[in-house]
Amino acid sequence: MRVLIIGLGHIGHSIGQGLVDSPFAVVGCDRNPNKVERFTRVTGFEASDSWKHLLKDSDVIMLSVRTDQVNSWIDEAREALASDQILVCLSAGINLRSILDQLGPSGVAARRAIANINVAVRSGCTVLMMSEDAADSDPLVPLFEYMGQVIQVGTDEELDRLSVLPGCAPGGVALFLEGLVEFGVRSGFSDRRALELALASVEASAAAMRQLDIPPVEFKRYSASPGGFVDRLLDDAQSHRVGGTAGEWFDHILRHLTGGRPSAESK
Question: Mean pLDDT, the chain, as a whole number?
Fold first, then answer.
């Protein structure tokens, strides 16, 4: 199966990375020559600044462009699309019915999907919505499953609602890690060492919760002695006595550990 990725921004590029060494033939396209060069260099796949000569040989077209560019692309490509092709719109804020109406009687199958950037390392999550005519053995399912988990839904409302968690989670985790690293640097570690420790701690905690089958609300207490120092700090955070960013909460811990002395950064 030949996959054409149109738009090599964060998601399009990540999908390409996730499909390296896969059984799928992949080609990319973007008007930005820097993105084309990077995509080819990182993935080894062919890429171009124009989709027109690539469209006819593609089985699946992944449209990874801004929402305000979707309609204009369909208008331009509609006559060139074939009835045996599948168009996957990866943009938020658009519904499948409007895509199908715009495609008209072309017979092109249309899908919607929201993927997160973790597909780049085949640990992603994709929420996939298929039209009513989709077969049970839809080829998109194994395609996205190659890059991680797939959640299949039947309506735009479900896709928009259920894609928020997997879509926002990578950024939320990065924000929390930023706070951990900031805390580590203020404690005396180098930037690199603080990042390594933060990543290892998050990875190990996630693995422990999964393997021990302990939900976060319980794991948070499992990791602290009842009534102890960390337990009291968790109470501070949960009762909102400590607000702000994750980094500020870790500063609160540092102040406890140093008896209120200023951090190394503030000296």
Answer: 86
